[in-house]
Amino acid sequence: MKRAHPRSSLALLAAVLGGVCGLPSLAHAQIITSEHARHGSPQHFALEFRFSPYRPDVDSEFTRPDRHPYKDFFGTGRHLLSQLEFDYQIIRHVGSLGVGASVGYFKATGNNLITGTDMVSADSSSLRLIPFAASLVYRFDLPYERLNIPLVPYGKLGLDYVLWTINNGNGEVPSSQGGRGQGGTLGWHAAVGLSLALDWFDQHAANQFDEELGVNHTHLFFEYGHMAINGLGQANRLHVGDDTWTAGMLFEF
To answer: What is the third-level CATH fold of 44-252?
Structure first.
């Protein structure tokens, strides 16, 4: 039997020891890669696409039970309110605290009643709302960031200003003594919601989305809000608030 050359044995031992000593460096590199994949690119902003069934509480301005102009013209149904919101996240890692601004669009159209009757005429009227809002937003995302629990509760509080326009059957803004066909109303809002982090279902796709577009997280959300848009104590302001739910998508980047 041929004996192994001492130099050959020493060379093999050196190779094995070198590989073992190199394992901590390799493990450290893997940890860094894993941490980068989990946290991704820096996160400072959020973008929301929001959709609500909306019915402005115009009739709440009138105390007489027989005065309900919104119901008379537009019925009791709800119409789509679409909104776009952009948030800047000021504080991270204790949850997410940010300030946001949003703009939206709403339109309701209905047939006018023939004067002195309950019969519907061929003429139509429309009410258009363009709501602006500024909000404080807090998202309790620590369970997701640290424990990988994909549900994120959140809350919002802020101020609103809604531009409104009423068009008559000729498509014009009506004007008469003591009447108003367009204007704006101040108010405030508060909401609570829950979002579902879609990254949780496919982390690999989420990492690619982050690398290519800089989107850290993608959420589906559902919230319920109270909008008291009645002038903040100012008299003779058109009431255009509502209590309703909102659903949509959130992108954090």
So the answer is: Porin (2.40.160)
